[in-house]
Amino acid sequence: MKMSRSFASLKQPVSTWKGRLLSAAKLQRLQRCKNGKLISIRRLIESMPLPSCVQSTLDGAVMLEVEVQPGSKRQGILGINHWRSRLSVAVRAEAQKGKANNAVLHVLSTALKIPKQNLRIVSGATSRSKKVRIEKLSHNELNFLLTPYLEEE
Questions:
Q1: Which tens digits make up the pLDDT trace of 28-57?
Q2: Tens digit of pLDDT for each residue in 108-133?
Q3: Crossing angle, helix 99-112 and helix 139-146, to 10 degrees?
Q4: Over 60: is that where the pLDDT of 8 sits?
């Protein structure tokens, strides 16, 4: 059975935005502002709604809601799960005696380049869903650090 056109001739998606695959034409339409001028991708990312997993506190700290996958083969930040409104983090350590909690703090500190002393697990010590408090970092700075992980898991 012969195919009438090859897969290479189909329009391939070139980018993702909020977890959706976009073609070049749709991406260009998204880049247009109200008066019809093109804006840069960086300004587009800055104008996107902030992830709901990041919250500011009254004392200036930031709360980050995290979903942990202990015992995985790879370790690192997987992305933002928009359905659960949480940042997905995979760690190699098993969930025994706080090893996974320490691994989560280590992954966040290395990936976001934040000192480990500024991170603390506030709730969810025995759960996969955790809240991490981040000191000495503003809401906007954390959102900028999370931009590489904005794709949906």
A1: 555 554 445 555 555 554 555 556 788 888
A2: 999 999 999 999 999 999 999 999 99
A3: 90
A4: no
Q: Which residues are within 8 A (CB) of 136 and not within 5 positions of it... i.e. 6 or more apart?
A: 118
CA–CA separation, 58 vs 106, rounded Å? 26
Closest CA to 103 of 145, 70, 136, 142: 70
- Length of the chain in terms of residues written: 153
Distances in whole angstroms, Cα of residue 38 to Cα of each of 6, 14, 32:
33, 18, 5
Separation of alpha carbons 77 and 104, rounded Å: 9
Distance of CA 90 to the CA centre of its chain: 13
What residue has token string 């290395």? 110
